Amino acid sequence: MERAARWGILPAYHGWQGDVVETPPEVERAILDSMGAAAGDPPPIRRPRLPKEPCCPAPERAWGWAVQLYALRSRDSWGVGDFADLRRFGRWSRKTGASVILLNPLGAQTPTLPYQPSPYFASTRRFRNLVYLRVEEVEGASSVDFADERSAALRLNDERLIDYDRVFQLKTGALEKIFRAAPRPAGLTSYVARQGRALGEFATFNAWCDVHGPAWRSWPADPGAPDPDRVAFHGWVQFHLDRQLARASRAIGLITDVPVGFASDGYDAWRWREYTAPGMRVGAPPDEFFRDGQDWGLPPLDPWKLSDAQWAPFIDAVRGAGRHAAGIRLDHVMGLFRLFWIPDGMTAAQGAYVRYPARVLLRLLARESRRAGAFVIGEDLGLVEPVVRRQLKEIGSLSYRLVWFEGSEPAAWPHDAVAALGTHDLPTIAGIWTRSEPEHRLHHLREKLVQLTHLPDDASPVDVAVAVYTHLAKGRPRMVLASMEDALGVHERPNVPGTIDEFPNWRLALPVTLEDIEHAGGVRRIAAEMKAAGR
Hints:
By secondary structure, the protein is an alpha/beta fold. It has 3 domains: 1-59 and 254-397, TIM Barrel, CATH 3.20.20; 61-98 and 398-535, no CATH class; 111-251, no CATH class. The protein contains 18 helices and 14 strands. The N and C termini lie far apart (52 Å).
């Protein structure tokens, strides 16, 4: 027990019902073995010398939309929302008074089939996902015939369920044609130089995936010399993604999301393999919304090895998210303080918390925030210790306050916070109001909507959404984020944690096109209420 505590393993934690959950001895042993913990003390952590300066300040009385970019399709989309759609929606949103758009993580996936749909299980937190490119806007596209690919891709918009495999195949086929015609666009050389060694390694990793598949642990000991054309192609794709994201960021302030981790078979896991804890996965213990706990399948970074890596895995993720961003959202920000480790062969209910060097990570976060000129939002939800919110406040990070979680009125919520109804993992207003939410244990949340809005049972979900966001608009928090699903009366949430095949997680497009969203009553009414509240 004492040795486990010295290595940062918490002996117990308070469960969601207030009970004390003790860490089983077999879990302690598994985590200690994963860390390579000797009988003595852990190695010293070399802490960098960092100024005690806060994050870049957040705006006052701001509001914006929370959208899943893949779901935001226009009539010109290739089956999935892209950066051109984001640019158009950003321009329109700014005209209606919004100043920011919160996006799902944009991290790249391995270039293989089946194509991973989850933005929180990406190959890397540093580089971007190929599916978000607008092919027609890539330099050289006008000189290439990809009519067949485009025609097939546009037909994908007829189905609400996004076919990532087909999107990836069609976009890759068209992009390969453009690459052969225009492999050296203006600005590529300087972009490659600025990205340094990481881009070359990422492009090489992808070129090896083209040959050997994504499971790099099963690759040959010598994967061979990568095809130089494929390496160049993968770097070229990232250049165009960066260029198109930059254009979208000039239309409106973008808030980008930093996932808590990365896929076990992806580039980041390969790149940082010396610093991850083998035989462990990251998740969350049981709570009111997820009674069995959550197993995210992400490999944790070993807190005792981060200083050996010069903190690069964390810096790289934040710096990547901060590029072209007005704000940075850290998903599960409690992970800077402690992460819930689940040993292989055990369930989420059997895991244990492991401490991380929070003060160093927070100072690094503040430095990267100032470097990027981007404010910070920490997703401090779930089983959060008071010290987490206190130290986040010290560095100037915004907190989160959700209608689903709070018992008080938005007028009483903290000023340095983001107000919202829920997150991508939580039910929508329509799902709760109509009781179509598949998790019946959450239907009691309907009473929160009744108490907040005082609307009759036969009110439409969109009317309820407008009333809820009107209350949020008048509240104290600096920022309000309105969910596009709520504004359109969508019943399904983007993701149901803990499920794989039961629901189409991360694969549902919005039920109407971007062109129709611009005229949708709920969307326009919420924008008008934000303006009326002085946001």
